[in-house]
Design a protein that fits this description.
Layout: E1 8-12, H1 16-28, E2 32-36, H2 39-49, E3 53-57, H3 65-73, E4 80-84, H4 89-97, E5 102-105, H5 110-126, E6 132-135, E7 138-141, E8 146-149, E9 152-153, H6 158-169, E10 174-176, H7 177-185, H8 194-207, E11 218-221, E12 225-228
Parallel strand pairs: 1-2, 1-3, 3-4, 4-5
Antiparallel strand pairs: 6-7, 7-8, 8-9, 10-12, 11-12
Helix pairs in contact: 2-3, 6-7, 6-8
Length: 234
């Protein structure tokens, strides 16, 4: 799996201008470029090409982008960045809960999209079964359930530890409030319980000695969720 030049990227979008712009940009960054104009073809190509990353427009004709996302997620965990013309939190949350790794709202800057692509590819490159996660001065031993910052062990409550584990294990990827609540507290918790998240994220930030206005580890995605930063994103 390449995380830089040579990575295969499949674009599923029905707008010719967007496809042309993406083709030029992706090829300029040495990515292998593939494209489809509708969802059915996109699902087929995803199974044939085995892309390293998919850029998926939610506003497709015929089968919707959300349906494409769900169907690909039935058999693949390839990183998927969704494009949406709707600047609405509900659309973004639905896509992220449906398995998308990130989103970009149209119109978007190509520099931003390429940066999101790099982060998504780095996230996959760092995904291993290694029980020790390292993020600069922060080290998390999943086997021993221990967390160290600057060489000193920090004490976390069981809930704080579980929250940090979910975020850190998905570094570079947005985790929605719903996903975080259900993974930490269980399936019976919903977005209405989001005050739990604010409280525990506040506790974590204090113990990780970070300034919430300039986060080094936990970044808030307003109204959507949280992203644990890969250290080269800072």
């Amino acid at each position: 799996m390449n995380n830089a030049s040579g990575a295969r990227i499949l674009v599923i979008d029905d707008e010719p201008q967007i496809r042309k712009l993406l083709k030029v940009t992706l090829q300029a960054h040495q990515y292998e470029h593939y494209e489809c104009v509708d969802g059915e073809e996109g699902i087929v190509q995803a199974s044939i090409v085995h892309p390293d990353l998919i850029i998926l427009d939610l506003g497709l004709p015929g089968i919707s982008g959300m349906d494409v996302l769900r169907r690909i997620r039935e058999w693949s965990q390839v990183p998927i960045i969704v494009l949406t013309a709707k600047d609405q939190e509900a659309d973004k949350i639905a896509a992220l809960d449906g398995g998308a790794d990130d989103y970009v709202t149209k119109p978007f800057g190509m520099g931003e999209l390429v940066a999101r692509i790099r982060v998504a590819l780095r996230h996959v490159a760092k995904t291993t079964d290694e029980p020790v996660l390292r993020f600069g001065s922060l080290v998390m031993d999943l086997a021993l359930r221990q967390v160290e910052l600057d060489g000193e062990q920090i004490k976390l409550t069981p809930t704080e530890y579980e929250m940090l584990k979910v975020l850190a294990s998905n570094a570079g990827k947005i985790i929605t409030q719903r996903q975080l609540l259900q993974q930490v507290w269980g399936a019976h918790h919903h977005e209405s319980d989001s005050h739990y998240l604010r409280v525990y994220v506040g506790h974590l930030r204090k113990k990780l000695k970070e300034d919430p206005t300039r986060p080094t580890f936990i970044q808030t995605e307003p109204g959507i969720g949280y992203r644990f930063l890969l250290q080269d994103e800072i």
